[in-house]
Amino acid sequence: MPTSTDIAVVGWAPTPMVRHTELSETQLLVRVITDALQPLGLTRSDVDFTCLGSCDYITGQAFSFVGNLDAIGAWPPKRDSHVEMDGAWALYEAWLRLQEGDIDIAVVTGSGRSSTGNPALIYPMEMDPFYLAPIGADPVTLAALQARAVIAAGIADERSMAEVAVRSRGKGTVDELLSGDYVREPLRRHDLPPITDGAAAMVLARGDRARQLVERPAYITGFDHRTECHNPSFRALDDSPSTRIAAEAAGLGDKPVEVAELQAAFTHEELLLRSVLGLGDDVTVNASGGALKANPIMATGLSRIGYAAEHIFGGGTRALAHSTSGPCLQQNLICILEGRS
Amino acid sequence: MIPVAVVGVGQTHHKTRRRDVSVGGMVREAVFRALEDAQMTMDDIDAVVLGKAPDLFEGIMKPELYLSDALGAVGKPMFRVHTAGSVGGTTGIVAASHVQAGKHKRVLAVAFEKQSEGNAQFALGSGRGASLGAGGAFAPFIRAYIHRSHAPEHIGWKVAVKDRQNALKNPYAHLKIEDISIEKVRNSPMMWEPIRFLESCPSSDGACAVIITDEVGARGRNPAWVLGASSRSEPPSFPGRDPVRPEACMQCAKDVYAQAGITRPRQQLDMAELYVPFSWHEPMWLEAHLIAEEGEGWKMTDAGDTEIAGSFPVNCSGGVLSSNPIGASGLLRFAEAANQVRGVAGEHQVDGAKTALAMAYGANSQYFSMWVVANSLQPFG
After folding, report:
1. Is the same domain home to A82 and A181?
2. Alpha helix positions (H), chain A
3. The pLDDT of residue A316
């Protein structure tokens, strides 16, 4: 039986991340799956298992993922699954599936076109249907409440949040940003994520197959995810216990990481996550620009794992990737990737 | 691969409307029955897998977020799958995978649908106008089956009567039609030719929960061992695809049989719970699961082989024709098959059942999920 540490990310590809695309989700996936497989010399027929991550409410249609079977090339039929979650969780399912030991190659994807809907109308639908959805509790408002708690706890202030924005997007100055108006106090425009259409695909391989495909596979040596109580008012918003439990279970503390890719759609979330994960200044956080630069919902988390894997492909030793779901970081996933010499 | 078993099964009483409970309250009914059956509490569970069909059915996006408290998932992994109508089956398979991979020890699989919260026919048509529902999608496949197999018209009626009679023996079943008869089915309104009203599944509110564990967890409990689990998907439409005898269905069946060591499914399986939302799917699926020869499935139905006392009982629980909380319907098949080999199916128990097949399918006959369960790890010696 294979061990869990014998499974590696061997390739990935994101689409261009844009404010709006006319391409359908299926079209995005056709391209990005090919882009992930081609450099490895693989075709769709080499893929033993596929798991797609997407969300009907973002696409605006029930069963929206069914058409995406055209993108995976499911003929002859494939072992296949779909999660109504970010592609990072699709990766978790594929990682479990490969550990069963009978198959070697899996492709996972995350995809979403959030430009087609109105986020302020759609996102309250993920809140509980009795107390929060009816009042239209939207993610920006909820994030502002969490930002206040994080600031009150001394983990962040408006200046450090602006610094995160400047570093992530590589434009503007802190003073310029702080002169802007609030969207929801204490959040300004720069503290918020953009609306992004996009998709990502990732290739996983097991054992010898991984080593044959690439020189330096990014081995998944720790993988865990946890959820919390749903209603943000019942949680300590200046903490993220689910992140902490997942990081412990994934063995984050065993060895230092060089880089961390955190799915922080709001600036204060990065500061909170850094604090909870105990990441020092020696760890490079979100060199990709993170979710503040491109936020293709349902692919944002998988992209974090993709950028962390790139660090390993390029000679890095250990990288951390994080994904999240739900209001105020309700559910959190931690993936540790390592290279071997 | 680590051997895994179902050690707890629970379900709700399925009804048209469960106005008395919230979604959270409804899933908890199934969960607590499963926990009681497994002699466990929520504290014993280390991961939760939730399955349901489109979120548009209830209007709650990603309900695994709202349900984290109700399902006792706080501080634990909570996973959400959605593979159309097959999702209940996939929920069982993914939960089994959590244990088979060695990552988790005791996993709770939960699936539900509360169709009364919204308009399922609207959502089934993706909100487009003039939705014909699932019957409109499947009627052409059924016509093709009848054309190819030369099956007589009464086969569909017989399945409809048999499954409703079985439902009378299942305390949880939704439809309880005491005076069900061939006559009554034949005289019911034509919905989507050749499917009549009483040959169609209902819309139900309901949930199902299953607890899966490893050999250590199964000690001192009543296990249904999962001998094989598999899924297959195929694309929506292209020349050469055969929705009457889907390639994905046959491949999936071959895969679970091979894993379970089954070479003669008709002889080696003691019963099956197949996803039959419209009566004619029973003979179609008997063939696509290689239980009957091509064109011969209807003869098994006609001869009474698929009745509880027959040589190959199918859907002793009453099946999807009697209870259809869509997202849970697949897990109900998987759970009922498990209860049969555990010998706890009650009045609809097949005498001496040791092995059983469960199957769910979804979308336009594109997603297939199956498992084979048995009362021991080596039922064939």
Report:
1. no
2. 25-37, 56-59, 69-72, 87-99, 119-122, 139-152, 158-169, 174-178, 207-213, 241-249, 267-277, 290-293, 300-313
3. 98
pLDDT per residue as tens digits for the range A117-174: 888 889 999 999 999 999 999 999 999 999 999 999 999 999 999 999 999 999 999 9
Residue ranges making up the domain that contains A272? 219-338
Q: What angle do CA B16, B22, B25 make, to 5 degrees?
A: 105
Q: Compute, in degrees rounded to 10, the torsion defined by CA atoms B338, B343, B345, B347.
A: 160
**Domain containing residue A26: CATH number:** 3.40.47.10
Query: Residue B26 corresponds to which amino acid?
Result: M
The tokens of A263 are what? 């799915």
**Distance between terminal CA atoms of chain B?**
20
For the cut 70, the answer to whether the pLDDT of residue B126 exceeds it is no
Residue-wise pLDDT for A219-255, tens only, equals 999 999 999 999 999 999 999 999 999 999 999 999 9
Pair (A9, A155) in one structural domain: no
Tally of structural domains, chain A: 3
Q: How far is A320 from chain B (nearest CA, A)?
A: 18
Structure tokens at A208: 């010898």
Flag whether pLDDT at B92 surpasses 90: yes
Whether residues A242 and A173 share a domain: the answer is no
Considering only residues 235 to 264 of chain A, which have any Cβ-Cβ distance to chain B shorter than 8 Å? 241-242, 245
Q: Minimum mean pLDDT among A136-140, B7-11, B70-74: which range? A: A136-140
The reply to whether A327 and A201 lie within a common domain is: no
Q: Is residue A277 very low, low, confident or very high in pLDDT (cuts 50, 70, 90)?
A: very high
A74 in the same domain as A50: yes
List the single residue in B73, B80, B126 with the smallest CB-CB distance to A62.
B126
Look up residue A175 and give its DSSP letter: H
Shortest distance between the Cα of B178 and any Cα of chain A, in A, equals 36
The span from the CA of A132 to the CA of A124, in Å, is 7
Find the residue in B nearest to A121 (Cα).
Answer: B61
- The residue among A213, A243, A273 that closes a domain is A213
pLDDT in tens, A72-111: 999 999 999 999 999 999 999 999 999 999 999 999 999 9
Interface of B with A in 192-251 (CB under 8 A): 230-236, 238, 246-248, 251
Q: Are A238 and A302 in the same domain? A: yes
How far apart are the CA of A81 and the nearest CA of chain B, in angstroms?
6
Domains of chain B: 5-120+203-218 (3.40.47.10)
My answer on whether A205 and A235 are in the same domain is no
- Residue A15 tokens read as 């689409």
Is the pLDDT at A3 greater than 80, yes or no?
Answer: no
Shortest alpha-carbon distance between residue A19 and chain B (Å) = 23
B25 Cβ under 8 Å from any chain A Cβ: no
Of B55, B64, B247, the CB nearest to A76: B247
Chain A residues 219-238 with CB within 8 Å of chain B: 224-230
Structure tokens at A10: 């061997």
Q: Where are the beta strands (DSSP E) in B246-366?
A: 271-273, 355-362
- DSSP states along B79-136: EEE-BTBTHHHHHHHHHHHHHHTTS-SEEEEEEEEEGGGS-HHHHHTTT-SS--HHHH
**Mind listing the pLDDT tens digit for each residue in B247-306?**
999 999 999 999 999 999 999 999 999 999 999 999 999 999 999 999 999 999 999 999
Separation CA B11–CA B333 (nearest Å): 11
Give the 3-state secondary structure of residue A102: coil
Is the ipTM beyond the 0.95 threshold? yes
Highest mean pLDDT among A52-66, B228-242, B321-335 belongs to: B321-335
DSSP letters for B92-103: HHHHHHHHHTTS
Task: With a cut of 90, say whether residue A34 has pLDDT above it.
Answer: yes
A183 shares its domain with A287: no
